[in-house]
């Protein structure tokens, strides 16, 4: 489930013109997507 949420977020960000980078030092923003078990 968390993988799908991350994929959807990545797709939305890329649609908005953002591009992923391999080196976090090059990133303008860093997202951490976590989950919990309830």
What's the SSE blueprint?
Blueprint: H1 2-15
Number of DSSP strand runs = 0
- Computed over alpha carbons, the radius of gyration is 12 Å
Derived from helix and strand composition plus strand pairing, the structural class reads: mainly alpha
Number of helices: 1
What portion of the residues fall into strands of 2 or more residues?
under 5%
The main β sheet shows up as: none
Helical amount among residues, as a percent range?
25-40%
Distance between the termini: 14 Å
Mean pLDDT: 89
Number of spatially distinct domains: 1
Low-pLDDT stretches? none
What is the oligomeric state here? single chain
Shape: flat
Note the run of SSEs as H and E. Answer: H
What does this structure look like?
37% of the residues lie in helices and 0% in strands. It has one helix and no strands. The model has no long low-confidence stretch (mean pLDDT 89). It has one domain (1-38). The chain starts with a helix and ends in a 23-residue tail after the last helix. The longest helix is centred in the N-terminal third of the chain and has 14 residues, at 2-15.
């Amino acid at each position: 489930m968390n993988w799908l949420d991350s994929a959807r977020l990545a797709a939305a960000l890329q649609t908005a013109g953002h591009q992923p980078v391999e080196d976090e030092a090059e990133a303008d923003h860093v997202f951490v997507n976590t989950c919990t078990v309830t």
